[in-house]
């Protein structure tokens, strides 16, 4: 594994494809929030519904960011599993993914997240992550 910290100011390219508009981290509450602006390119059904894999990616990115921030960029969280419940169709536009840590161990973390579009809850997720310590 790389000897450097993860730099969230230089995000991976997939986040720009997802329309990431950055993140907020409330250290006192232990919550991370990411905003996304999804266009027609990531939809099906004649541009009316955001594809479920992109919904999952937004939730997963939010949970991973939270673990990176909590670990002060010294850990790389690798998803072991992500469970998603799709509650409503997401339409092109702005989304907000909010995540929290449910349990944090030395090498494994359990997180959960919600994805909203305005006041509408689109999906929820839970994940298990292997925590790789960066040197």
Automatic annotation (TrEMBL):
Domain Acyl-CoA thioesterase-like N-terminal HotDog, residue spans: 47-128
Domain of life: Bacteria
InterPro entries from the UniProt entry: HotDog_dom_sf (IPR029069), TesB_ACOT8-like_N (IPR049449)
Pfam families xref list: 4HBT_3 (PF13622)
Protein name, entry field: PaaI family thioesterase
Annotated source species: SAR86 cluster bacterium
